Apoptosis-inducing factor 3
Amino acid sequence: FWVVPAVEVKIEVVIPEKERSKEEMSPNGKASPLIYKVNGTARHYHLEEHPIASNPYHNPKDVVEASVCHVKDLENGQMREVDLGCGKALLIKESGEFHAVGHKCPHYGAPLVKGVLSKGRVRCPWHGACFNISTGDIEDFPGLDSLPRFQVKIEKEKVYIRASKQALQTQRRTKMMAKCISLTNYNLSSTNVLIIGAGAAGLVCAETLRQEGFSDRIVMCTMDRHLPYDRPKLSKSMDSHPEQIALRPKEFFCTYDIEVLTEMQVAAVDVKSKIAVFKDGFKMEYNKLLIATGNTPKTLSCKGKEMENVFNIRTPEDANRVVKLATSKNVVIVGASFLGMEVAAYLAERAHSVSLVELEHVPFKKFFGERVGRAVMKMFENNRVKFYMQTEVSELREQEGKLKEVVLKSGKVLRADVCVVGVGAVPATGFLKQSGINIDSKGFIVVNKMMQTNIPGVFAAGDAVIFPLALRNNKKVNVPHWQMAHMHGRIAALNMLAHGTEISTVPYLWTAMFGKSIRYAGHGEGFDDVVIQGDLDELKFVAFYTKSDEVVAVASMNYDPIVSKVAEVLVAGRTIRKRDVE
């Protein structure tokens, strides 16, 4: 908490213009229904307030005031974390104006003061989420919530802060959403929007529809037995229970009338009749459809692949079971993929031994390049992980029905009580083969910049699609990452409502191993050189991936916020030349 005795700055919580109308509702808190035109048809919408976004002035005891600094203490383009006694705010000065928002990224709590400020938004230094500094609204992902926004007042060159204690403590704000107003008389087997898949893309699509005022029926269906959860944690934090990694609590889905059908698999889609047929024979009519089924892990093709204690990590139960079985035992991981490497790192201090089998000679070679891959490999070897490279599994051997040994094509035999397979995945789109929806030779659903398929009213998002990436001259690519799935879901929802919004985000991902993170932005596929600054041996470096003369991606370790800085340059459409980083 930084104070100049003579001068002070004042901040107070404000509700964005868009949301203020809710505060001017009738006494019972209900707004009159809005009329919202979708494709020329008038529909009724009803707005409801989420408790987190309630008006901070209803309860004067909830308001705190404190002083922070002189107007001249912050230069344009500067950010400062300020302490208000019962919580902190982020004070920002841009283009001569002060703004104040929550200081922590709602995703995993990163300090935004260490992020990147650019053209009216702040980008998280850890995972790249972006927030509008005027409204606090989330503009790029990952994460679901926005920042609380506080009003900055300046009097006589002094600055005072006034803020809601609740907003300071929660450091997050759920955007205003509509509720369904037609649930009393709906037909069980018919919905306006059907979302197949309940990952990040499906959930963000449903939430965006409600945020935009859509108040008709939304049904999400998933083969999973759980409500949407934070899937990246399955390999990064393997003993997490489903409720610990849930993206939203059960009450959230009830409050906003987002129906989730769990353990329900769609077997076929009839796009002419607009009907989805489930595996158990149940049929559901839809008006708009989002396919966000993600991918299916590849399995081994060798003898013994079906035996007990051989896992693809697909669910929280899989991850929990692996941790339990691996504790003080011998683990073999097949595939130095992101999943394989993260699992190896997580189990290294819990298992008796961890062995990793990989076809390439260096992990992550295609993605991070050989030099970064070698540095990562060395870090793993220093943490007792043993690599068996340039070979694959020829057989899994059992004893009394349980896994006992993994035999490699090189002839080496590894002791194994549990085996985790991370050899890639294929898009989960087999059920669409006869549908008429355009699917490429690898099984990916082909969409345009608005996430639309070739069939009107049918959208697709997430790991199962290829889409035009603005960053790479609209080349159609597959980007199977958490952040991108969020953005796909948002773009699909906006275009279901005929907004005509095109995707222009820069891919951003991270991996976490042994308490260290590699952050990555851009799309480095086909890079022909890597320019490295810093020290690979010390694991403090930034790597620029170039194609011809242009930087197409960047990765870093212990070098924040360089990846977020590069992401902001790329998203602005500016080119970074190789000579600029050499």
About this structure: The domain at 190-296+427-497 is CATH 3.50.50.60 (FAD/NAD(P)-binding domain). The CA atoms of residues 351 and 455 lie 50 Å apart.
